């Protein structure tokens, strides 16, 4: 059914359940945290100008994963875009950093590419969190998952009742 999907959420969840987020981050024990819409308040700079105020704009965190020391924001796409607006990574980063302190925050961009069947990951960081233009690509990776053509029926894995014991 996943192959018929065109929704980014399904592919993000599938990638997480297959262990691709663990593979990419190198962190075992990641758990799904939350996805959320928010209206944060913060200030930032662009081009060295006076700080700009963000107030009342709606942002969306597509997904997040973490453990006791790490929090990963995820911007997800179905199909790899030719470009994207930095704001899609920066605004959730600025909104959720205060909420998850003192954990380290990693900003992940994820895309499922149906033409090749690849799960693609990019990690970005902001050298100066207050400067919108201080984005830097940390690393990227591509993964392929083999879909099973003939899955084993679930009934073979279902919990079987214990035969009643005679006293």
Give a concise summary.
This protein is of the alpha+beta class.
Describe this structure in words.
The termini are far apart. This protein has 167 residues and is an alpha+beta fold. The chain contains 3 helices and 10 strands. The chain has helices at residues 8-17, 20-25, 87-100; strands spanning 31-32, 36-38, 41-44, 52-55, 59-61, 63-66, 70-78, 104-113, 118-126, 135-144. A hairpin with a 3-residue loop joins β6 and β7 (70-78). The strands form 3 sheets. Strands 1-6-7-8-9-10 form a 6-stranded mixed β-sheet, sandwiched between helices. The protein has a two-stranded antiparallel ribbon with strand order 2-5. It has a two-stranded antiparallel ribbon with strand order 3-4. The longest helix has 14 residues, at 87-100.
């Amino acid at each position: 059914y996943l192959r018929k999907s065109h929704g980014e959420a399904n592919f993000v969840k599938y990638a997480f359940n297959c262990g691709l987020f663990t593979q990419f981050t190198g962190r075992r024990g990641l758990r799904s945290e939350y996805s959320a819409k928010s209206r944060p308040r913060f200030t930032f700079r662009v081009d060295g100008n006076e700080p700009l105020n963000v107030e009342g704009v709606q942002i969306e965190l597509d997904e997040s994963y973490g453990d006791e020391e790490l929090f990963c924001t995820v911007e997800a796409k179905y199909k790899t875009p030719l470009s994207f607006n930095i704001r899609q990574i920066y605004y959730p980063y600025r909104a959720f950093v205060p909420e998850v302190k003192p954990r380290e925050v990693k900003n992940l961009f994820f895309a499922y590419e149906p033409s090749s069947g690849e799960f693609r990951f990019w990690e970005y960081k902001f050298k100066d969190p207050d400067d919108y233009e201080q984005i830097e690509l940390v690393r990227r990776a591509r993964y392929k998952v083999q879909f099973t053509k003939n899955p084993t029926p679930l009934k073979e894995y279902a919990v079987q009742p214990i035969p009643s014991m005679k006293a």
